[in-house]
Amino acid sequence: MSERRVLLIIGGGIAAYKAPELVRQLKAQGLATRCLLTAAAEQFVSPLSLASVSGDKVYENLFDLTDEAEMGHIQLSRDADLILVAPATADLIAKMAQGLANDLASTSLLATDKPVMIAPAMNVRMWEHAATQRNLAQLSADGIGIIGPDEGDMACGEFGLGRMSEPSEIALAAKKAIDQAPPRQTPLQPAKPLSGRKVLVTAGPTYEPIDPVRYIANRSSGKQGYALASALSALGAEVHLVTGPTALNDPENVTTTRVETARQMLEACQACLPVDAAIMAAAVADWRPAQSQDAKIKKTKSGLDDLKLVENPDILATLAAHATQRPSLVVGFAAETNDIESYASEKRVRKKCDWIVANDVSANSGIAGGVMGGDENQIHLLTASGSEPWEVMSKTDVAVKLAAQIATYFATHEETA
Hints:
Elements: E1 5-10, H1 19-28, E2 32-37, H2 47-54, E3 58-59, H3 65-70, H4 72-78, E4 82-88, H5 90-98, H6 104-111, E5 116-120, H7 124-128, H8 130-141, E6 145-146, E7 150-153, E8 159-163, H9 167-180, E9 198-203, E10 208-211, E11 214-216, H10 223-234, E12 238-243, E13 255-258, H11 262-272, E14 277-280, E15 287-289, E16 309-311, H12 315-320, E17 329-336, H13 340-350, E18 355-360, E19 376-377, E20 379-383, E21 386-389, E22 393-394, H14 395-411
Parallel strand pairs: 1-2, 1-4, 2-3, 4-5, 5-6, 9-12, 9-14, 12-13, 14-17, 17-18
Antiparallel strand pairs: 7-8, 10-11, 15-16, 18-20, 19-22, 20-21
Helix pairs in contact: 1-2, 1-9, 4-6, 5-8, 8-14, 10-14
């Protein structure tokens, strides 16, 4: 066991026929390979061919008494520097995300203390399905590396994302992961999927002064933006939080800049560029007084003169349209009181952002204490692919789930800021 070793788990997709070539490519990278076949994978590739190219026994049955006596599924999962699942089918990904363990492959994955990487392969509609994307988000949050998939023609006759990456590409990724991992005898911690990423988050309201004691603002508490900053930091991101006035403490391990007005917030956001992602959770005031008075405006019998308002800069649209430093992922927020999805969808297109997180902030939202200022939220996540409604949950849980979605985005897209 002095050589570096990969446990290759082969899922039951058509791409399993590429497994022998993948073993050869891993060998070319100096990696010994031990193969584990799922029952479905045996329909596409034979144990004999894998044993021939790997020079090792092929494991198949959880309840094989000989295998359990000689090695056991626990030892099998740990006598390797890396576990690689290729192809990773939608079914196998779902098992991993849910922590199921009803066959040798899923049991070995659940029992391992080693790094895990997957190379997904499935029909494009299966890849795009909300359930698959949720499962991938969970795996990414758990620190599992994702290789591909690629875009192209599929065996089913369709075209799109879902083709397993080429064996040479997967082998290179596996070698890189092993090279970067601690020595085998050192217990490995799950990788943080947003390590090396810079993320900008805005939060809270803005205060637009009328005079030294009065201002225009809204009811935003900043809780959702602060929770997002913490969740993204927990996944390894370098997070810069630009926040309007709130009663919240600065999140740990996050660089925080406090501002008051929309113009100050825009300036602070631009100073953070370049970033990989911009998550615009702040409830920025749309208007400000055309002229802020230096002295308190006195109440008179004639009443207050007309308060002239001018439009504030649009921070979300400005970053989304940045000519040279547009973040790879721009996420806006839409707080609406009616026609939630319709207004949010129009906003996503108009402001040219990638995602919109929409929620109902009306008195009829059904959330105790209301969304603005409360501790719960219910959102719709709108992307170019459509709308995904989420159930009511705490703002902390919303943040954790959205951070995992962001990690999945970067795990499945090659562009960098």
